[in-house]
């Protein structure tokens, strides 16, 4: 599993979540993770687009949330975790171990509901939204673990298990994939199956996974959670005096140099890195 490097733009926007604190960020850059295979065996990158609920001007297509429903302990420097398994290819594998990771076939930007744990099987008029929610319970000791997962756990109902007693913020990723250019089902595989595949070779969607590395400065995240920072998307007002925010235009200037020279655009004869489709 590789660590995804993301650059985030600070903006706090409330998104209809019943939470004491809701921080919402746009991502100005994201590693390519999804491609569309053509009938002739070639592949083309699927782009992302900005969240239409407040981030249409963002260069990236991912929205990152930090949520709390009460008192939480912010992550510590050096903390990292992953969720999901890129090797999974069945619903049974995914559902036995993980929760709250799914795909939404968008009929419009406001579509919520009808989520699946595999790639949608029909063309989606407004693209596909992928949602990944991380566990919210920490063992209170380890900043990481050999598999990057054992030091965190899901709660039992509203309470964390005794093995992982510390409640941490809910980290939640939403990524908007612009699958609209590929909606002509006459171009889809001749067997009628959906055409998309993750760049690590998964054509089912069950290998969905996310990586998180904590990078906040000082106690900024703890202060934001303690002060119940959130804002109202529709009135464009922000209630987060403890944090500095920036405009999307400023955030879009924050980029990272490309470190991989391998071709990513145009039609490719194989997945990046020579990954096999399984």
Automatic annotation (TrEMBL):
Transmembrane spans: none
Coiled-coil regions listed: none
Domain DUF1996: 39-216
Pfam family, one: DUF1996
Family matches, as InterPro entries: DUF1996 (IPR018535)
Keywords carried by this UniProt record: Signal
Signal peptide: 1-19
Name the UniProt record assigns to this protein: DUF1996 domain-containing protein
UniProt lineage: Eukaryota, Fungi, Dikarya, Ascomycota, Pezizomycotina
